[in-house]
Amino acid sequence: MIVKTLFFGITGSALLLITFLGLPGTAMAESVPQACYDGYNFLKSGDYKKSVNKLTRCLEANSLDAEIKATAYYNRASAYYLQSLAEEDWEKADNINEKALNDVEKSIELDPGYAKAYCLRGWIYLDLSWGEFGDEDIDTGMKLGATKEECSYTYTE
Description:
By secondary structure, the chain is mostly helical. The protein has one domain (3-9, 34-156): Serine Threonine Protein Phosphatase 5, Tetratricopeptide repeat (Alpha Horseshoe). It has helices spanning 26-31, 34-45, 48-59, 66-86, 90-110, 115-127, 131-143, 148-151; strands spanning 3-5, 154-156. The longest helix has 21 residues, at 66-86. The protein starts with a strand and ends with a strand.
């Protein structure tokens, strides 16, 4: 049996290193719907289905600039990806990973310099057995400034 161990920068937790650009300044905060923050908070707490629902509502807002929208897509992709890791049915896991892949690709399209998005897409590719693409994206993420810890993807038995 293979157990996936993913090491990320949150102490004492095996979560993705997820960011929502910190707490934006007042002017920015007024333009960011509460659903964006709620989705991120559900993601951090491990409630991935609620996170997906809130981030979907967040992405429906017309007030999002490209950077916030890229982050929301990244966070929703992360929620889908983490949901797929808990799924025992591999077909369901692959379907969830396809949703994650669609979202992370939208994130990269909106912000081509989003280093951690490349790492996440690399992990998804590796889970979908597209190893060459996964390795390339992880390398790209690190070249764009993601740390080794942010891009770590290891298996242990």
